[in-house]
Amino acid sequence: MIKVLIVDDDKLVRKGISSAMPWNEFDMEVVGEASNGAKALDFLKTQPVDLMLTDLAMPVMSGIELMRAARQLYPELHIVVLTLHQDFDYIQEALRLGAIDYIAKVQLEKEQFEHVLQRIHTRINGLTSTIRKMPSLDEINVHYRNVYALVSQERKSEHKWPTELTAHEDEIRWEVERNSCMWAAPPSEEDQLFHQLKECLHQVPQCTLLVLSDVQERTWSQIKNWIMSYTESSLFYVYNPNNQVITISMNEEDTCSNEPQDEDLDRIKQSWFQTPWTHHESYYNQLIDQFISLRLHKGQLMGLLYSIVMEWNRIFAQTTLGRIAMIHSFESWYEVEEWIKQTAASIRKADEQTSYSQEIIDAVKKAVMIVQQDLEQAYTASGLSQQLNISRSYFSQCFKDLMGKTFNEYSRFIRVEKSKEYLLNTNNTIFWIAERVGYSDEKYFSRIFRELTGLLPSEYRQLGRGNK
């Protein structure tokens, strides 16, 4: 039984997650709750916990601080981040600290509870190798030429796999897990088995038939584990409804990367915001190749996509450049790429509503991202217009028309918005925060903050944490 601890400063969220999700169906049990990181650490000292779901933004000790402490004290603890947080840096920090999954609270609708727990359960099984025992034959070496596996990308429900397909008594059929099953038959029966399994593809949603070679001298248990690993990593990217039969050798190495590098994630984010990928096929293909090359696990990919969408909408939703809709669930890279294509179309449509050329729109987007990514730098409209090779007056006019604020107004606005996050989610001094958002004078920063919010930074921090 996987013992679960839920950490969130909102009591209703804790109770809702604890009572509404079908924990028992996935061999899980909620053993405790905590309202902040400090109380969570106290609980971990007294009771064994296998899985911790934690919010990021909490008083006393934030989720990030809790993760750092828990990772040192309890290296075997599995952690899932549960948050509404919109800042890309916080999301990537959670992934760097070893979070096995990232769940946006907006995803936790009733019909997705089972799907979320299935994903977490599968991830824990893959990391700990705690795989259900197979029949007594599982340690016997395979003597068949090939092993066949039907694998469904749809994991929300159990599938009814066909029973014995050939008349031969040596036919083997074993369920791998709830979304996959494998077969084997003697050479004389292989063609019949293969064609019957192909006929089954249309009966199971999002299904792929794997034909595994080089299976001799391996145990059934090893083959089962290989199928589970391949399904979780490579098949996620290979699946295509137009090519449902895949022949693969078990000697092939898995190319999935478990540890995305910060510079690779940053490169994707920069490409999304700063290259005209929505309007040019070469840039689009480059962006897709960058995504695929990382081979991110599904949870990591969801976290990356969610952070990109939230940042885009935070920056552009209230402007003429438009809002994009998040992909709330997916079972394969094929679905993700379909969503990216639809997103590109919606961005193009929003761009077409303006009177400016695509070159000018892209330049304004690039200017926005330059400022966003380096708030400590004191950028000016004059300096950016020169960098973008546009006259200052025209740049200022375009910026205000597209972003709804003058450059100076926007610059102050985003610095104050970033400082709000620091105030609520860190214990750093006002001077430290002022420097991080581009103000070397703490008093001047406080005056600007008060002009835009009606409160001093210290008052905002106290009020925000008091409400929580």
What would your notes on this structure say?
The strands form two sheets. A five-stranded parallel β-sheet has the order 2-1-3-4-5, sandwiched between helices. A five-stranded mixed β-sheet has the order 7-8-6-9-10, sandwiched between helices. Among the domains are: 2-128, 3-Layer(aba) Sandwich (Rossmann fold); 136-249, Alpha-Beta Plaits; 408-467, Homeodomain-like (Arc Repressor Mutant, subunit A, Orthogonal Bundle), CATH 1.10.10.60. The longest helix is centred in the last third of the chain and has 20 residues, at 333-352. With 468 residues, it is an alpha/beta fold. Helix 1 (11-20) links the parallel strand 1 (2-7) and strand 2 (28-34). The chain is 51% helix and 12% strand. The protein is built from 19 helices and ten strands.
Quick summary of this structure?
The protein has 468 residues and is of the alpha/beta class. Helices cover 51% and strands 12% of the residues.
List the keywords.
alpha/beta; 468 residues; 12% strand; 10 strands; 51% helix; Alpha-Beta Plaits; 19 helices; Rossmann fold; five-stranded mixed sheet; Arc Repressor Mutant, subunit A
* CATH architecture label name of the domain at 2-128: 3-Layer(aba) Sandwich
Biggest sheet statistics: 5 strands, parallel
Helix content: 40-55%
- Give the amount of beta strand, in percent: 5-15%
The CATH C-level name of the domain at 2-128 is Alpha Beta
Mean pLDDT: 84
Strand order of the biggest β-sheet: 2-1-3-4-5
